[in-house]
């Protein structure tokens, strides 16, 4: 199961937000978001955790406990997401990931199918 810090990072990056953007949305400094995303960092208050869930459009229960599906519509993150799934190895991967994250869910599934057909 992902740690809370991993779930916060996954929710933020899947929502296409930077640490600075999430900080602005939740009324904290960027350094607070960075701490929340560190393995040995601080844990957000329940109020901030609820704000993160609303801003990133994930279920509060998943964000707080790791149980269930992250997204209300059942699409996107699940409790089995790999902690390092958000880290890219080079600029090309980063650009591709950024483009895919901007796609609506239906087109994401189509892009996934295309990539699988390429023999990956």
UniProtKB/TrEMBL annotation:
The HTH cro/C1-type domain sits at 8-63
What is one Pfam family matched by this protein? Answer: HTH_3
Looking up Gene3D superfamilies in the UniProt record yields: lambda repressor-like DNA-binding domains
SUPFAM superfamilies listed in its UniProt record? lambda repressor-like DNA-binding domains
This one is known as: Helix-turn-helix transcriptional regulator
């Amino acid at each position: 199961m992902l740690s809370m810090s991993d779930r916060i990072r996954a929710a933020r990056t899947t929502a296409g937000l930077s640490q600075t953007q999430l900080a602005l949305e939740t009324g904290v400094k960027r350094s607070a978001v960075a701490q929340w995303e560190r393995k040995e960092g601080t844990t957000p208050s329940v109020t901030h955790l609820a704000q993160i869930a609303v801003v990133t459009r994930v279920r509060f229960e998943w964000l707080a406990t790791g149980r269930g599906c992250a997204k209300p519509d059942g699409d996107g993150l699940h409790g089995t997401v790999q902690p390092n799934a958000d880290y890219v190895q080079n600029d090309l991967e980063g650009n591709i990931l950024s483009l895919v994250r901007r796609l609506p869910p239906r087109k994401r599934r189509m892009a996934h199918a295309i990539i699988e057909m390429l023999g990956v």
